[in-house]
Amino acid sequence: MDDVPKNLDAVFGTATATSANWRTENIDFTAVNEHMQVTDPVMLWLATAASFIESASDIYTENLVEYFSADAEISSWLASQWEPEELQHGKTLRTYVEAAWPEFDWEAALRVFWRITQSFVVLKYWGLPWRWSWLRAA
Q1: Which of 7, 37, 82, 93 is in the most buried spot, having the most CB atoms within 10 Å?
Q2: Rounded mean pLDDT of 97-105?
Q3: What are the tens digits of pLDDT across the range 42-95?
């Protein structure tokens, strides 16, 4: 566990979440410990789960913009600021997972995640099956 902060420092350098203008492309993923799946599998699984959730931020944003439609300022901020940042988190986490766990099929696992999400969250709680119809073809 002691090597995790060193590993993260090597990977992320100065491009941290607190930096105002960080970009996935500025992160050195060649420094990723490819053996993290053995040394810290729980953190790798958490990063993988987070990558799926953050990669769905466009859908969450669409729902939030609709919910806050009466407030133009909030709706605009959600669409122009929050969504791109959250999608960037998903892209960055995905890139990290793919570097740390090269044999993991991220795309196939994401499709499973979408199907589970569609079944248990969207249809039961949000009632928005039409937004997820593209999943049936995947």
Answers
A1: 93
A2: 91
A3: 888 999 999 999 998 888 898 889 889 999 999 999 999 999 999 999 999 999
Non-local (6+) Cβ contacts of 62 within 8 A are 131
Distance CA 125, CA 38 (A): 37
SS (HEC) of 4-30: HHHHHHHHHCCCCCCCCCCCHHHCCHH
Averaged pLDDT score across all residues of the chain: 76
> Rounded CA gap, 68 and 80, in Å?
14
pTM of the predicted structure, to 2 decimals: 0.70
Which domain does 71 fall in, by range? 3-104
CB count in 10 Å sphere of residue 107: 10
Q: How many domains does the structure of the chain reveal?
A: 1
End-to-end CA distance of the chain: 38
Kindly state whether residue 48 falls inside one of the protein's structural domains: yes
63 phi and psi, to 5 degrees?
A: -65, -40
Closest CA to 79 of 89, 68, 90: 68
Q: Dig out the tokens for 138 from the structure.
A: 């995947």
